[in-house]
Amino acid sequence: MTPEQLADAFARTCVVIPAYNEGKSIQAVIRAVQEHMPGAIVVVVNDGSSDDTEVKARAVGAVVLSLSVNLGIGGAVQTGYKFALRRGYDFAVQIDGDGQHDPREVPHLFEQLIEEESDLVIGSRWLGRGEYVAPRNRRFAMKFLQALVSWRARGHFTDTTSGFRALNRRTIELFAIHYPTDYPEVESIVLARKFGLRVTEVPVKMEAREHGTSSIRGFKTLYFMIRVTVGLLVGVMGGEEL
Amino acid sequence: MKGNILAGIISVVMLIVTIRAIRKKQLTEMHAILWLGVSLGTALLSTLLPFGAFTPLAHFFGIAYPPDMVLVFGLFFFALFTFQLSVSMSRLSARQKVLVQELALVKEMLDPESAQ
Q1: What digits encode the pLDDT tens for the residues A10-59?
Q2: ipTM confidence
Q3: Is the CB of residue B105 less than 8 Å away from at least one CB of chain A?
Q4: Which of A50, A96, A216, B47 has the most CB atoms within 10 Å of its CB?
Q5: What is the pTM of this model?
Q6: Do B115 and A61 touch (CB under 8 A)?
Q7: Hey, where are the domains in chain A?
Q8: CATH assignment, A3-234
Q9: H/E/C letters for each residue in chain A?
């Protein structure tokens, strides 16, 4: 992709950053996006934070969609996609508000999205670039999800929980209507495939978190596994054959 | 005999509580009708049970002690009712999600501060 093509694509891109109490890292994330994706609009979905996430995001020029009550990551991200759909953006990028995704990697996602005509491109930690090491206790969960999603989505997926993604208009339209509520990353891959969309992964580098901890830990990991497995096997969208 | 005196008292209390809740508009019609039905049903059962009205039916289902049949039906009813509550709660939270999202999008449109 030429720099001109990329600049043109960025001008039609809405960057969705779900944020729940990310006041410490949100400004750095927004600035990085503004620097490396010039022309893209930055939309922070403030998911009922009790800290100053909203004020800080506005201070550096992001559009803030503020949810009155906490909806969880699924409802927050979907709000961003609804915004992107209604304002007519052709592309959307989802980036976490905690600084673990590097916007300098977005051109890799866009190459796949535009030149290879994928509908949804997922940045994967596990395809060789970067030195991201998962905590040992999470490795089993990740392997399990890889196998489950690859089977349900009829493809090979390595990083099913990655929230670093780029999508085109078709996928924005789908996700604005149908988007899973709890732990949406995993289920949304299968959902997109079910609707006949092309979903691919590209290798990206990911940083360890700057602040805060994963929303999935401890006993929640077990609930997460059960919830996702049930969702993928018998869920409304997961139960039928592709 | 004492058992159905207790059941009678319970059904009268339930009836009073239900009617009060309806008056205060704490229950929607559907739930009001349901709970009225439950209290009247309990009253009916506690009246009829001592006269052996349910003995043939209980024996048909292989239940030796008729009050146990009432218990089984009661449990079944409550399982069904809680399931229905679960369904309507899920529906409510799905609707709430849409409303909260719409509110955020509308707030953004109305608020010039956030416009880029």
Answers
A1: 999 999 999 999 999 999 999 999 999 999 999 999 999 999 999 999 99
A2: 0.86
A3: yes
A4: A96
A5: 0.84
A6: no
A7: 3-234
A8: 3.90.550.10
A9: CCHHHHHHHHCCEEEEEEECCCCCCHHHHHHHHHHHCCCCEEEEEECCCCCCHHHHHHHCCCEEEECCCCCHHHHHHHHHHHHHHHCCCCEEEECCCCCCECHHHHHHHHHHHHHCCCCEEEEECCCCCCCCCCCHHHHHHHHHHHHHHHHHCCCCCCCCCCCCEEEEHHHHHHHHHCCCCCCHHHHHHHHHHHCCCCEEEEECCECCCCCCCCCCCCHHHHHHHHHHHHHHHHCCCCCCCC
